[in-house]
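Take the subject:
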Amino acid sequence: GVEVGPQPQGVARADVLDKMRKIVKHGLDFVQLFNEGKEFPQCTIEVFKIMEKVDYPRNKNGEIIAIIHPKLQDQDWQPLKNGDPLFLTLDGEVIPYQGNCTVYPTFINEAAYYEKKQAFVKTEKIKLTAKHLRLPVS
């Protein structure tokens, strides 16, 4: 599957559709080249590994008491460092990120995740090495 976003629910965005078309085309091109016997050398890529889901701050009754800070909104996949603004309480108090490493939040303030008690997902950037790849000769 391919998920391209973010985009609001029920909205069709031309830029997101274009990105989806390009990634599907690249995938199909890869399959064709692989089936034709093309050799792909070993390579290293950066990926984002999910660490944990983060909920909104809540009171003792389970009600949300802070929202995503404006400096974090729309910053999916961007580095979040210790002390950076994370949430903003309804009283205007900034709640900073408190962590021992830089993380890369995603799915920030997605409407579909409110009911799942998820303000965003923390990810870490890691490098993976893909081995040399070639269709085995029959």
The chain is about 15% helix and 25% strand. The longest helix spans residues 14-35. The beta strands are 43-54, 66-68, 85-89, 94-96, 120-130.
